[in-house]
Amino acid sequence: MGASFTDFGGWEMPVRYTSDLAEHHAVRTAAGLFDISHMGEIFVEGKQAAVFVDYALVGAASEIAIGRAKYSLICNEQGGIIDDLIVYRLGQNAFLIVANASNKDVVAAALEKRAEGFDVEVKDESDSWVLLAIQGPNSVKILSQITSAPLADLKYYAISEAPIAQVNCLLARTGYTGEDGFEIYIPVESAEKVFNEIMAAGHDHGLLPTGLACRDTLRLEAGMPLYGHEMNLDINPYQAGFGKVVRLDKPDDFVGKAALAKLSQMPPTKVLVGLAGEGKRAARADYEVFVEGSDSSIGVVTSGALSPTLGFPVAMAYLSADFAEADTPISVDIRGARTPFTVVKLPFYQRAKS
Amino acid sequence: MINREGLHYTKEHEWLSIDGDIATVGITEYAAEKLGDIVFVDLPKVGSSTTYMKICGEIESTKSVGELYAPVDGEIVEVNDVVSGNPELVNHDPFGAGWLIKIRFTELPALLTHEEYAALTGEG
What we know:
heterodimer; A: 354 residues; alpha+beta; Elongation Factor Tu (Ef-tu), domain 3; six-stranded mixed sheet; 18% helix; 35% strand; globular; B: 124 residues; CATH 2.40.50.100; 9 strands; Single_hybrid_motif (chain B); lipoyl (chain B); GCV_H/Fam206 (chain B); Biotin_lipoyl (chain B)
């Protein structure tokens, strides 16, 4: 397919197949098919599965209905973010926790450690599953050709077993692009067949195979954080704008609760904001942010690119809370040139809801 | 169609086409592919001077920033304004319409031949 690959945690992952921009636009206007098998699939099963996930993560897993999903975080005792996760409830006593590729071993190890004393089994099945994501407005049209599953009934952040191309898969209406779409968990031995049949079904609907490069610009436009950029162990959920994900009101103790309860009472000194610029020059990760017309440093860019959809540079940055209000003019040091940007609300891009 | 085998190269992935005392400079297909889709090109001003292996411009893709190193000492006599407005030309035609700058030079430094450059990039 002429793809260019990168090694990611042992999986060889496609960065791009042809053109980052063409792939980006395909997802916004038609559909794209991502191979994101590098993500970690960790299954938690057992009588105390819900109680355990409540203890191990900051969210309230026991409140998730069977067949639904929630965004969550796993924190350390200090309240630092170990990873951000999607938690799917597969059954009364069964959860699927999906971790970022770079963190899956750490997350699996932390979950196993935290499982001591609980009647649960934590199984890292990352090597047994291929994860494909079909994203974009034509996703339903394409997938409906090769499944009998009632796609229209599968709500956003829901998951169900479904035959895709005659292969039994887990089908979730989730994604990381800001578009409608599905993530499909496929047993590794059948993945190639499913990939090929989706591509064939999408042939007349503008479907392109899409790589990790455009996935990054898509998630950036959608204001979605990426671990290692907007989150790390030194960032707490309140700084990252995910205070609501932390359920301090859960009845029982959870890892990080004491620290997070304290942090929730203190206004964060730095917060994650969106930045929008003019022209074509992108503010990129690690560039320093300054008060407009001054040498006083107020923060640092965590992700940035020339937005393919919007045509102007967008970035996410941690700024001192005093400068985090929307419409605040600031400047970014782009390789020695102070360049004007404005603080804006996230996301940069939101699809028209049908 | 430019004859790539007759060009000079640098280890920073520029190519040079020499005509008298004028060097036309672009980046190689290898470099353009590594960068990905190029979305912004910042070229030096006509009349500015260049110093061998000093940065004289930038080539940005969606993912990263590439630097343009001056391959010779000299003076910029022309820049490709078409590329400034259509940076994707560097991807589509790096050895042709995607050329970047023309430099008047007095002396050519040691540059790589096509074979040497191909060996460097592992592409024959």
